[in-house]
Amino acid sequence: MNRNYILPLIASLGVIIVVVVIIDNNQSTPKRPLVIQPSLSPYASAIAGVGIVEASTGNIAIGTPVPGIATKIYVKVGDRVKAGDALFKIDDRDLQAQLLTANARINETIALSQKPIHRLEYLEHLKQSDSSAVSKQNLSDLRDDVAQADAAYELAKVQAEQIKTEINRRTVRAPTTGQVLQLHMRLGEYVDSSSTTVPMLLFGGGNKLYVRVNIAETESWRFQSETKAVAFVQGNPNLNISLQFEYLEPYIKPKTSLSGLSTERTDVRVLQAIYSFDHSKLPVYVGQQLDVFIKAGSVTSEITETRN
Fold first, then answer.
1. Would you kindly state where each structural domain of the chain is located, as residue ranges?
2. What pLDDT sits at residue 228?
3. Cα angle vertex 218, ends 212, 219, to 5°?
4. Weakest-pLDDT range from 29-43, 49-63, 159-173
5. Farthest-apart Cα atoms in the chain, separation
6. Residues of the chain above pLDDT 90, percent
7. Contact 202/34 with Cβ under 8 angstroms?
8. Distance (Å, rounded) from C-alpha 244 to C-alpha 155?
């Protein structure tokens, strides 16, 4: 092919490519649907906050009064138990040995008390027959011996009961009717009573679930307990339920549920309002976050009323 035709052909192809690229870049990219739909407030003016689901008793961190090895675990995660049911047991073999000694001491005091008791009964019977046969001093001494034996017996019983109480303390029981939420202990592990980082057993009681709503301190002045509130399951705005106000913790505290982002302020303080809801109508779990909207008046009208 003639070289005179090659160069114009290459230049024409280059122009066509540039035109195609420009046209393609100018075309609008179709918007992709959001994977997670955001929750929208059903009220014209509302206070928005993130709520944490918890048991109505609060999330109870179950511990042990004494350290030791876990010899029995009576429950598993998800079990529902009644108040007083055994949760786990700490090794009590040392106390069981002490109880054997204490019971033996009780039997010993009973045996030692028989001699002064029988002698006192004999001398009192003898004195009734012949008042001069037994002196008052002898009778007084024997009565003192019997009283001392009775005191030794009572002390031995108290010591045995004290050991039984310590044995009962080694079995940790449910403080109320509820559910085992988490279990961070294994059979045979050493359990430290002073551990405060991760609870050995997390327990929640009550028939209702609560949601603890964090209200930013800048919005706290707008909060009213008698207004309506609704909670949405994050990721599915079609799952929502009305909330019932329970109580307010009248203390502004630092926000604890931080996302970890470098752009997030860590000096934010919040007011916490606690609501309840029927968890049978909403598939949520303790510890789950909900989007909560609390109905409030418009900011403009509230400012006007304040000035008036």
1. 39-56+207-308, 62-88+173-204, 92-169
2. 94
3. 55
4. 29-43
5. 161
6. 47
7. no
8. 56
CATH class of 62-88+173-204: mainly beta
How many Cβ atoms sit within 10 Å of the Cβ of residue 116? Answer: 19
Least Cα distance to 40 among 223, 245, 174, 240 occurs for 240
Q: Which strand (E) or helix (H) includes residue 258?
A: none
What would the pLDDT profile of 276-302 be if each residue is shown by its tens digit?
A: 998 777 788 889 999 999 999 765 554
Closest to 170 in 3D by CA, of 65, 62, 63:
65
Contact by Cβ (8 Å): 282, 209: no
More confident residue, 264 or 118: 118
- Residue 116 φ then ψ, to 5°: -65, -30
Q: Quickly name the fold that domain 39-56+207-308 has.
A: Elongation Factor Tu (Ef-tu); domain 3 (2.40.30)
The answer to whether 207 and 80 have CB atoms below 8 angstroms apart is no
- Rama region for 198: left / alpha / beta (φ>0; ψ in -120 to 50; rest): beta
Tell me how far the alpha carbon of residue 36 is from its chain's centroid: 30
Provide mean pLDDT across the span 157-175: 95
* DSSP per-residue letters across 144-175: HHHHHHHHHHHHHHHHHHHHHHHHHHTEEE-S
Beta strand pairing call for 178-183 and 171-173: unpaired
Residue 36's CB is within 10 A of a number of other CB atoms, namely: 9
Residues 214, 50 contacting (CB under 8 angstroms): yes
Q: Per residue in 213-240, pLDDT tens?
A: 999 999 999 999 999 999 999 888 889 9
Total residues found in the chain within this entry: 308
What's the predicted TM-score (pTM) here? 0.68
Contact between 46 and 295 (Cβ < 8 Å):
yes
Reduce the secondary structure of 52-79 to three states and give it as a string.
EEEECCCEEEECCCCCEEEEEECCCCCC
Which amino acid appears at position 139 of this protein?
L
- C-alpha distances (whole Å) from 238 to each of 38, 39, 76, 134, 140 are 10, 9, 33, 98, 89
